[in-house]
Specification:
With 394 residues, the chain is α/β, with parallel strands linked by helices. Helices cover 35% and strands 17% of the residues. The protein is built from 13 helices and twelve strands.
């Protein structure tokens, strides 16, 4: 398998630059956002209404004790977290939140090892992961923190039309059985487009990635028998695939590699003005990823949990089929009342309207549906300190 470490050396220079640019964009968005965090917001779409006392909870969140929190994981959620945590710190300057976007798998590993207060992953911890958490630590709580789409971005010189792709064709591109841009499978979907007689360069993740999980979850859903590489955070990609770490790495690779195609979280694609495909959904229609089409997909399944989390390939004419939630992961029984209070308060603020969710749209994410927000608060109210005391005040 080709490793990202052995590929074109210019990528090593570009990847950090793009990552800084994304973080900077997120911080600028945060600085320009409204400073209000206690406004009561009621909405009925999608998924019901928010709890009536939302404002009281969020006001209490800003009274979190000082100090610092370390967290790590998903790069899918990183631009959103950068802005949300910057805003939270500006409102509650006693607390510093240090989030490292290292990939979902690495974040889970850090959480299992106890080196972070919470982790973020675009796929909840599986049973094998949960078994690595010491029994003395108690249960693991996993709540959605944001909703987003995975764009199929490409760099195709001379082609100005947005191309269409379906599940079988994407599966063939990424399993190495479709190797040319003018292959019959692609031209059949794009009869009005003159596609080049040039080899395809698939760009994929080198690290353990929740974005990879969402993408391969879609490929398996759309091709139950044809997709044979599995649904996982890590995939044994064919040797033709070029591997790069993080969403920022894949985005950089696509931008600098003509005739390439890969998958990146939608906010990275939009911020970097990337070209991305329309993808065939379960209704048989070709849909481009957008805030509206990702929300339409999530609308079809408003009840999600760590055990039933996939929302790929949902019904609906306007649903974008490669969509998913990112998840915050933390302990139900906190060993420190101070740190535990910091964790539940910042995550409560971040995952609710009137708090961090107000930043979502400006960063090309979709706010969590009200039903999910209410579910999150219910989960956060179960978190206790070492003496059994509830850490989120009603």
């Amino acid at each position: 398998m080709t490793s990202w470490n052995t590929n074109r050396t210019h990528r090593r220079r570009i990847v950090p630059m793009l990552a800084v640019g994304l973080a900077g964009a997120a911080l600028l968005s945060a600085c320009s956002s409204s400073s209000s965090s206690s406004t009561t917001t009621t909405t009925t779409k999608p998924g019901g209404t928010l709890s009536a006392n939302n404002a009281a909870y969020l006001a209490a969140d800003l009274k979190a004790p000082g100090g610092s929190l370390n967290a790590s994981g998903s790069t899918f959620v990183q631009p959103f977290f950068n802005s949300a945590f910057y805003k939270y710190t500006s409102l509650n300057q006693a607390l510093q939140i240090n989030y490292q976007g290292v990939g979902s798998g690495a974040g889970i590993t850090a959480f299992e090892g106890g080196s972070v207060a919470f982790a973020a992953s675009d796929v909840p911890m599986a049973a094998a992961d949960l078994a690595k958490v010491p029994a003395s630590s108690g249960s693991v709580v996993q709540i959605p923190d944001i909703l987003g789409g995975v764009a199929v971005a490409y760099n195709l010189p001379g082609v100005s039309h947005r191309i269409k792709l379906d599940g079988p064709t994407l599966a063939g591109i990424f399993d190495g059985t479709i190797t040319m841009w003018n292959a019959p499978q692609i031209t059949a979907l794009n009869p009005a487009v003159t596609l080049p007689a040039h080899a395809i360069t698939p760009e994929v993740r080198a690290d353990s990635s929740g974005t990879t999980y969402i993408f391969t979850d879609y490929l398996k859903s759309a091709n139950p028998t044809a997709w044979t590489l599995g649904t996982s955070k890590t995939i044994a990609w064919p040797s033709t695939a070029i591997q790069s770490p993080k969403n920022s790495g894949v985005a950089s690779a696509i931008l600098t590699s003509p005739y390439s195609i890969g998958y990146v979280e939608l906010s990275y694609a939009i911020q970097n003005k990337m070209t991305y495909a329309k993808v065939k959904n379960s209704a048989g229609l070709y849909v481009a990823p957008s805030l509206a089409t990702v929300a339409a997909d999530a609308d079809q399944k408003t009840s999600v949990s760590a055990a039933d989390f996939s929302i790929v390939n949902q019904a609906g004419a306007t649903s974008y089929p490669i969509s998913g939630y990112s998840w915050a992961i933390f302990l139900q029984k906190q060993t420190s009342a101070t740190t535990g209070a910091q964790v539940v308060k910042v995550l409560d603020w971040t995952t609710h309207t009137g708090g961090g969710q107000d930043l979502a749209g400006g960063l090309n994410y979709v706010p969590l549906p009200p039903a999910v927000q209410n579910q999150n608060r219910t989960q956060l109210l179960t978190v206790t300190g070492p003496s059994g005391q509830t850490l989120l005040t009603k």
